[in-house]
Design brief:
The structure is a single chain. By secondary structure, this protein is mostly helical. It contains 5 helices and 3 strands; from the N terminus they run E-H-E-H-E-H-H-H. The protein starts with a strand and ends with a helix.
C-alpha cells in the first residue's frame, strides 16, 4: 500500500531505506522507470513508497517525525570555500606555454586525425572540380 510519494528515485529510496532501518518493510517500484528511462511527469508517474497495510500508520508517523527532525541548511551561511577551476588546474599541469598545440599545427598524434579528414575533404573537393571541368568540356 502506498504510504507517500517522492519527487524522484533518489528521494524514494532514501525514504524507503529510512523506513527499513526503523523496522518497516518498504519498497519502491521504479524498475520500469529506470529501465525504460521514462520521463513522465510526477503527476502521471509518481515514485511511490509502498509498505504493508498493517505498517501504514507507523510508516506515516516515522516519515513525519523524520521530516520534522531534518535540518534545513541556509546555504548563504555555510562557508564552502573558494571555487576552484579544476579544468584550468589540469590544463596548467599538463601543458606548458611552449607545448600548446593549435588546432592543426604542429602536427602531432593528438591532431593527426584532423589532418587526415582535411586531406579527405581536399581530395573530394579536387575530384568534384575535375569532374565538373570534364563534364563542361564534354558537353561543349
Amino acid at each position: 500500500m502506498p504510504v507517500t510519494d517522492a519527487s524522484g528515485p533518489a528521494e524514494a529510496h532514501i525514504v524507503a531505506s529510512m523506513l527499513r532501518e526503523s523496522g518497516v518493510e518498504a519498497f519502491v517500484f521504479d524498475t520500469a522507470n529506470q529501465t525504460l528511462q521514462w520521463d513522465a511527469p510526477r503527476i502521471i508517474n509518481p515514485y511511490l513508497i509502498h509498505v504493508k497495510h498493517e505498517d501504514l500508520d507507523r510508516a506515516r508517523q516515522l516519515i513525519k517525525s523524520n521530516r520534522e527532525e531534518s535540518v534545513d541548511l541556509d546555504w548563504d551561511e555555510v562557508d564552502v570555500g573558494e571555487p576552484v577551476d579544476e579544468i584550468a588546474e589540469q590544463t596548467a599541469r599538463h601543458q606548458t606555454s611552449d607545448q600548446q598545440a593549435g588546432y592543426f599545427w604542429p602536427i602531432s598524434w593528438k591532431n593527426l586525425h584532423r589532418w587526415f579528414f582535411l586531406g579527405i575533404l581536399i581530395y573530394l573537393a579536387v575530384m568534384l572540380i575535375l569532374n565538373i571541368v570534364a563534364y563542361v568540356a564534354r558537353i561543349s
